[in-house]
Amino acid sequence: MKFKILLHALIICALMPQAAFAASADRESEAVSSEEPAAAEVSAEEDAFAVEPQDIVFHTTGGGKYLYNNNPEGIDDSMVAAGDDPRYISNHDGLEPDTYYLYMSYFNYTGSGKRGYDIEVDVQITAKEDAVFTIEDASFETIDVFAYEENGTVYHSMPEWQFNGVCADMLGVPIIDKRGTNEYIPHDYEPVTVRLKAGETVWLSEYFENYDVVHFADPVHFQALIELESGVVDMDTAALPHNGILGDRSDVPEDIGFGIYRYDYTVKGIADTLPKVETDVLEYEIDDTHPDGTILPGTVYNQYSPDGLTVDTWCSNINPVSDYWSKYTAVESDMIKLDYEDDNKLTYYGKNVKDKDNIWRFDTRHTSVSDYTALSGKSRDDYSPNFEVEDIFLEGIEPAACNLGNYGVIETYNLEITNNGNEDRYFEYNIMTKSDVIVYAADEDGSFDKAYCKGITDEAVYTPMASVLLPAGETTRFSVNMFIPVNVNGGIQNRFVISDSSNMDIKPQEERSYVDPLRGQNLSEVKDKLGKTALEEFSANLDSYEINDGEGIHLVRWCAWDGAPYFYANSWGYCNKVYVLDEDYEIVHTFTVPSMATESDISAGVLYVRDLQNGIYSSSDGGASWKVAFLNEIPVNTDFVRNVGEIDTVVLTAADGTREAYKIDLAEYKDYIESFDMKQNTGETFDDRKYTSMIINGKYSVGNGMMLGSKIYIAKNDKWIMNEVSNRIFEQKTASEWASEYIDRACGYGIVPLYMKSDEKAFTEPLTRLEFCDLIYEMLECMDAVPAPADSRFTDCSDRHVLSLVTAGIITGISDTEFAPQSGITREQAAAVLARTAAYMKSELEKTAVEIKDTVSDWAKECVYMMYNSGIMNGVGDGNFDAYGSYTKEQSITAQVRLYEYLLCADAYNRLPALPNGTKYYAVYREKFRDGRIELTTFDTSDGSVPKLISGESLTIENESVYTDDKKYYLSCGEWVPFEKDYIRISNMSGGLIITNVAY
């Protein structure tokens, strides 16, 4: 067998928790009980088992060195080899002839509070003396969005972040996903021998077949097997800004700082073994008296069970000191030890400590903490970092202990089972975990031709991962080999079972029809055309943006996260701007969507953007103003072949780039719009319009519509209605820079009165009380929440907007009879109006008192506190609020936008359709996968109990055993559509609970 087959490699990339970016800190054992077991609760006498137990003790196989690098997991600006203080990620220096297995896993977290930039992660190999080494195998992978068509619908996705393709490459055999979703086929790698003179350098990227850029917030994983035959080399890992030329190292700094250890619950170092541990031969005997389902027990030994504990299930891939749930049943001996030499460790010692060293030790006996912690039991002056755990029962020690998972390490169970019965039986290796696990069974010669992966699942249930025939009357010798890939939780429950038949359930591989994931093209494809402003904005992320082309106009949006946008939810704010470029490819407008733009296009001169959570926005004035477009789908991009007599030709461009042409007789459609006064609404008659076209309802578009110039006409309920888009330009030249983004958003939402967009009042000028009421009224109108006007009680104002707000209890006036419409509104008055608006919309704001230095009227204090706590209004600096100061137009619009967005979330359930008949208990939530669609689960309880909902990564009820009558729906075109698949949980990775009638 090839040497690489003896090794295996894995991958590490943390799943973006809740669309948030979680680091490896969450890699801990998955709880399988509600409280920590005492030793007596899990122990058992050996004679309680039907089969003699065997010792589950692992030992390393040696044979080389394991270079494991996952610290820091998130590469930020301080760990990039560029700028004033360039730094390596890790350094393994002075390596002498041996076999080295490299295992690297990171995330691109550059940006430091703003959108990050593309990087390249690489290993610099430098000869300290003449050296010869052979790269026996190497595999590299990052992620990219893909799309496929299924039953006429295009779905976007991205590879799972375990990088099982790298594992297959290094294992040398296919890895088959038992769910039927993937089969990872290994690529052949031709070994390369490299000869270096002393002082010469090469980069490992030269020897990867699939080397690529790592985009902002994306993971990367690579492995390599290197045989150093002679000489001494340094192997140093670096993150380098991508300079536009993949693999170019001409601008690498000469002096790069050492890659220090940084405490973030991840580790790095070198192990004195290749990444494989194995047991001695485990010998079991069975016969026909052992029934189907007989469990083969094992005895584990660890710090909590030093004398051994015999169990039917044991936990691997976890440090028992770091985990609350597996302390007594964890194998522990499977965990390999890593050392990392780093002089920076010396800086953490207390001043009284004499015995210092520069080696970080990552194992089950030490903590991984650097800074002082009272858990050490020492004073600051006597403190030692990375201290050894003296009291394994110390309360709170778990987070400080080394968070180890044995990623990339093959754990081999060597087995010899004698079947003394008359019937053939099966040995089955069962695991229980939500994590992905890769398993293969090998014969006594070590041969195998495939491996299986479980995939990440919603629930932890026992799953057969290997099944071996045990012929009657024979002794069968084999091994079961398991390892976990990157970006999954450690803590795997293991069990050996004897079965009458094989229970390996392998679903057939799905057939997929892949299509282009973009309507347009990547911005990198037009790099040479970009103007100065566009280059300045996009040059660090060209492959992460899509550009859609129109006539003399272009639309640009972030597209790198289309496959799983909720994984990146914590970073949406860095990448949720949409850009409009002119014919010279210069930026002329921007528009900020509330969450994330997941689709964009230009159709008949109208710009369209789909926001992940809030539908489609459109602009008919070249991006100067935006508003909600009441469409289910973005219209297809249409090109017009004009003036073809009475027959117009419409060319539709499909998502995959193909085009279809249609001939349309205008007269044929005239009768359908007879009741619509075209002249009144467009200034032209239908017959006079030369370039009228029909948006075809068919393969590539949704909804009947007609386009006249920049106007869209949509068929609803057999009547033609116009989707009006104001052609007024929202003039922004007099606005402060800080307010521009909020003004853009207000324009897009359509919550600013038209007169306020076109009047001459500068944004920095104070607003009157009447104008402020107009803002609030416009916002409520967009939310269909305007009440009927009250009878006028004011002698100085009869404005219907003001009187509607009086009805709502939002406006009270300066006295019982006076409103003072033309007086300026003060900041505390504005706070009161905004707070009452929130209350009218049934939204409670936090009233906790805030320290304010200057004076606020007693009647307004609670409202001002609510504004501070919600972030809707802020102070003016130095702890002052300026309660009696004027409130400007731009300040008012900013507060209006913040309140509107707050209310949009709070009011989401009011816009949902009626629930299906027969619903007893329900939960409405936004799904983290499937493009974040809104889903509904209806259910009951079998015992009549009132359920309690638990909301976490997935939604479930407290007592799952009584969960029954499950039905699922998703929201489509304002209706609940039955689910396309059967599930037994409320939600798979919910993106957020919207409404439920269950306590939680």
UniProtKB/TrEMBL annotation:
Residues making up the signal peptide according to the UniProt record: 1-22
Protein name: S-layer homology domain-containing protein
Organism of provenance: Candidatus Ornithomonoglobus merdipullorum
InterPro entries, alphabetized: SLH_dom
Membrane spanning stretches: none
Keyword annotations: Repeat, Signal
Pfam families in UniProt: SLH (PF00395)
PROSITE patterns for the chain: SLH (PS51272)
Source organism superkingdom: Bacteria
